[in-house]
Design brief:
By secondary structure, this protein is an alpha+beta fold. About 45% of the residues lie in helices and about 15% in strands. The chain is built from 7 helices and 4 strands, in the order ααβαβαββααα. The longest helix has about 30 residues. The radius of gyration is 34 Å and the shape is flat. It comes from Rhizobium rosettiformans. This is Pilus assembly protein CpaD.
Length: about 220
């Protein structure tokens, strides 16, 4: 009777030990599956800012009865010319619609567009005039101005290749997370070369340095000088 009781106790003890080992091994496997980091992946790696060749365009609306460019349109063309001069040294195209009801007026306007560009500093030998086939059903096909330049940009946003619920369960940020922030940051970069290498330092203003150091030695407030 005693030996049977001891055998039963040994069986119970073995069951408890096996159960404990199973629980601990389950916790270990669960710990391996879950990441200890709140956000294990980096949106800057998933949506990097890259330098790419991009076509910049400006569509100038022209009505069939137009004879001159309005002041607001001239200002828009002038701003586009300033962007071109700061970003590109290539050619700039003036594309006139062909086959649209306003093709005649658009053809006349291209001369004025060219004048605005040259007046803003665009060399005349960099301006190319071409045409494109417009939709005949379009009442006001625009005159398109375009140039190609190296531009900072990210990959397209708005992609949702995975279910958001799966990302939440695995404690990861979703694929589109951070894309808008990266895209807005890229759009604010005036000089894409700043992402490649720093600019040269400006020369020291010796006169201003002497003035500030002199005021500092005298104990004067330099914030108002």
């Amino acid at each position: 009777m005693a030996s049977a009781r001891q055998s039963f106790q040994r069986l119970v003890l073995s069951g408890i030990v096996l159960g404990t080992v199973a629980v601990l091994s389950g916790c270990g496997s669960m710990k391996d599956q879950m990441s200890t980091s709140a956000i294990p992946d980096d949106y800057r790696t998933r949506h990097p800012i890259m330098l790419s060749e991009v076509e910049h365009t400006l569509d100038v609306p022209i009505a069939s009865g137009d004879r001159r460019l309005t002041v607001s349109v001239q200002d828009s063309i002038a701003g586009f010319a300033a962007d071109y001069l700061s970003a590109s040294t290539g050619t700039i195209q003036i594309m006139v619609p062909h086959g649209a009801p306003n093709s005649g007026a658009a053809s006349d306007m291209r001369k004025q567009i060219r004048q605005v560009l040259t007046a803003r500093g665009v060399p005349s030998n960099r301006i190319i005039e071409t045409s494109y086939q417009a939709d005949p059903n379009s009442n006001a096909a625009p005159v398109r101005i375009s140039y190609v330049a190296i531009t900072a940009m990210t990959n397209p946003c708005g992609e949702w290749p995975e279910d958001l619920q799966d990302n939440t369960f695995s404690n990861k940020n979703y694929h589109n997370f951070g894309c808008a922030t990266q895209s807005n940051l890229a759009a604010q970069i005036a000089n894409p070369m700043d992402l490649v290498t720093p600019r040269d330092m400006a020369p020291i203003d010796a006169t201003r340095r002497s003035t500030v150091i002199g005021l500092y030695r005298k104990g004067s407030d330099t914030s108002t000088n």
